[in-house]
Amino acid sequence: MCGIAGWVSFDRDLRAAENTATLDAMTETMSCRGPDDRGTWTAEHAGLGHRRLAIIDLPGGRQPMSVSTPEGDIALVYSGEAYNFTELRSELSARGHRFRTDSDTEVVLHGYLEWGESVAERLNGMYAFALWDSRHDKLVMIRDRMGVKPFYYRPTPDGVLFGSEPKAVLANPLVRPRVTLDGLRELFTLVKTPGHAVWDGMYEVEPGTVVTVDRGGLRRHVYWRLETRPHSDDRDTTIATVRSLLDDIVRRQLVSDVPRCILLSGGLDSSSVTALAARRLAESGEKVRTFAVDFVGRTENFVADSLRTTPDTPFVHDVARLSGTVHRDIVLDPETLADPDVRARMIRARDIPMGLGDMDTSLYLLFRAIREHSTVALSGESADEVFGGYLQFFDEEARRADTFPWLVRFTEHFGEDAGLLRDDVNSALDLESYVRDSYDSAVAGIERLDGESDFEYRMRRICHLHLTRFVRVLLDRKDRASMAVGLEVRVPFCDHRLVEYVYNAPWALKSFDGREKSLLREAVADVLPRSVYERTKSPYPSTQDPKYAVALQEHARDLLARPDHQVFDLVDRDRLQKAADHEAPQITMASRRGLERTLDLATWLDLYEPEVHLRAVP
Predict the structure, then answer these.
(1) Rounded CA separation 202/153 (Å)
(2) How does DSSP classify residue 32?
(3) pLDDT at site 583
(4) What pLDDT score was predicted for residue 308?
(5) What is the per-residue pLDDT for 253?
(6) Kind and range of the H or E element at 46?
(7) Which residue from 453, 362, 438 is spatially nearest to 404, judged by alpha carbons?
(8) Bridge partners for 213 per DSSP
(9) 310 φ, ψ to 5°?
(10) Domain boundaries along the sequence of the chain
């Protein structure tokens, strides 16, 4: 796992000192993603930068990695893991390729030599990589199917800039840090428009996509998309197939030359990964190391709400005991969760202010604590999207709504996301129209099976939206928080084979017992404690301690004491004052969310000093 950056310019010589210095600066913004090593490679019109987090073949996997051919050099910078690199290496060796290292990076490089851009179709994993092909003066950028690894680029008049994160692109003086209305709209909605990067002029390499840049311009090619196919397997066969796939996926994703662990929440998803990993490692006498996040006093003082009916810790400990893991709880206090320095670190990690408050800062703090013991972690992320685990899958209002179903539940619990914005800003944003247009675009291309009932097709659309929109919000959050501390987090449930198979199972099969994630529950029933098997879905935890709200209010009052702060071009001062003065024990989730959103915005404006345009920019 690493951080990449690069610059292609057909009108200048990137070997010049001022340009190599700029490439170095772009690369250094990725130091948190790759604390173990750094390297750059330059040709006349291309420069590649790499920061390395060493996971596979510690001495041999240095980058950028290049190979010479009679027609010219090919250089690669690569971030991620190819879990099938051993099989690909054998196939390439049989075709005459010779390898100098044991790294998956070299396999990808030789895979490109053999198959060109089609190498992407052969990879199983999470990856974002760029190749400069001197034979054709062409840059090739490729991202994994589910979008586990981030990848951004910005076209320029004579080429392109790219990086694992926007900060790498923003480090080039050719780019102005500017956000327009559409960027703000993306910030204040949870719709995750494909390709949208918030920053003006910048884009994401979309999941399952190849982007090429040469003197003729920029082209995109989709090599994978979620497709509708008939599912003919019966229930028992489907359950057995899910289990077989999970066993294979976990086996592959446990491969590492550095210490690894499991993120354990006590829910069905992470408990499944933990149990399967424990079984696998027990074959060689190894124990799984597990970590869980908790908050001071949460278990003793837990109050059920519309999202969470039980605290996590008792279930976490049940799994740890049954699977025999070496377990540790990471217990966080409210003051640390609200610490402005921690908030700033998370916003710097994400490059944008998402306003998720303690659900962001606690994740960052959890990963920072884990990094002291492990370099790789497996996660249960994305199982809810794959198997149908969220409450909105079963909520009739959310099912029927002609909008993104998670927005129905989110608004019900947290209130309007833009609740503290000024009226003129809300009017300019017109978020309702933005969400409606985004939804119409998202559902337009979802294929329907011949003979599929209206209900089954509606549920297919809901599953498709979660797998192509909502999951990317969470995957980006996970990646940024983990890589900010140099921790690689793997997501077994994003294996494209599992995603394709389960997506096409009809909803009646996904929920055959009337519960969420029926297929997953039965596939791993033999390795789970009964308490977890019977537990209902509980989202990522959030602190209920009123001291956290008190700390937020104190920070809001500090901000209110700076009336000339740029945040008040967006946020209504009177509404913020009201939220800051509210009695903390009775503060609503909507008010707390407004405080978190405002503090995130203010911190982002301080850190990035962006140009914010509330009118169309010519």
Answers:
(1) 6
(2) T
(3) 79
(4) 87
(5) 97
(6) strand 46-52
(7) 438
(8) 139, 218
(9) -145, 150
(10) 2-222, 235-534
Alpha helices in 371-495 (DSSP H): 383-387, 396-400, 405-414, 423-429, 431-444, 454-465, 471-483
Q: Tell the CATH topology of 235-534.
A: Rossmann fold (3.40.50)
Radius of gyration of the chain (CA): 24
For residue range 287-330, list pLDDT tens digits in order.
999 999 999 999 888 888 877 889 999 999 999 999 999 999 99
User: Rounded CA gap, 493 and 386, in Å?
Assistant: 7
**For every residue of 140-194, which 3-state class applies, written as one string?**
EEEECCCCCCCCEEEEECCEEEEECCHHHHHCCCCCCCEECHHHHHHHCCCCCCC
**Helix 235-253 with 268-282: angle, nearest 10 deg:** 60
Mean pLDDT value across residues 567-579: 96
Average of per-residue pLDDT across 47-62: 84
Q: What is the mean pLDDT of the chain?
A: 95
Over 509-534, what HEC string results?
HHCCCCCCCHHHHHHCHHHCCHHHHH
On whether the pTM is more than 0.90, the answer is yes
Cβ count near 280 (within 10 Å)? 15
Q: What is the mean pLDDT of residues 100-122?
A: 96
Q: Which residues contact 391 (CB under 8 A, 6 or more apart)?
A: 307, 398, 409, 537
Token code pair at residue 284: 């060689």
Distance, CA of 45 to CA of 33 (rounded, Å)? 26
pLDDT above 80 (res 58): no
Distances (CA, A) of 22 to 47, 273, 561: 10, 42, 38
Residue type for 422, please? R
Helix ranges, 254-297 (H):
268-282
At residue 490, the pLDDT reads: 97
Amino acid at 32: C
CATH number of 2-222: 3.60.20.10
Q: Which residues contact 552 (CB under 8 A, 6 or more apart)?
A: 338, 357, 592, 595, 596, 599
Q: Tens digit of pLDDT for each residue in 526-564?
A: 999 999 999 999 889 999 999 999 999 999 999 999 999
The answer to whether 32 is a known catalytic residue is no
Least confident of 60-64, 89-93, 443-447: 60-64
Distance CA 537, CA 517 (A): 9
Active-site residue among 2, 32, 261, 494? Answer: 2
Whether the ω angle into residue 64 lies within 30 degrees of 0, i.e. cis, is yes
**Reported confidence tier of residue 413, pLDDT bands at 50, 70, 90:** low
Q: What is the largest CA-CA distance in the chain?
A: 73
DSSP one-letter code for 287 = P
Sequence-distant (6+) residues with CB within 8 A of 236 are: none
